[in-house]
Amino acid sequence: MSYNEYAQVLEPKNPKTGELYKPSDCKAADRHPEPRRRLTRPTR
After folding, report:
1. Close Cβ partners of 19 (under 8 Å, ≥ 6 residues apart)
2. For residues 14 and 25, is the Cβ–Cβ distance under 8 A?
3. Taking the complete model, does pTM exceed 0.70, yes or no?
4. Which of 2, 8, 21, 26 lies at 20 to 30 Å from 40 by C-alpha?
């Protein structure tokens, strides 16, 4: 999710409270729960 999409999630008002959504109102899921390795060049 980009910053723009994140902002779009927080822009509307929460109908239950009448206030804007807060980051604490959202749940984020890690799409990559396992650590990933970076590809690097082999060293000589």
Report:
1. 13
2. yes
3. no
4. 2
pLDDT in tens, 1-44: 566 788 888 889 989 999 998 888 887 776 666 766 666 666 65
- In angstroms, the first-to-last Cα distance of the chain is 38
Q: Which residues are CB-contacts of 13 (< 8 A; sequence separation ≥ 6)?
A: 19, 20, 21
**CA of residue 43 relative to chain centroid, distance:** 35
Backbone angles phi, psi at 42, to 5 degrees: -65, 145
Q: Which residues contact 9 (CB under 8 A, 6 or more apart)?
A: 21, 26
Residue with tokens 């082999």: 42
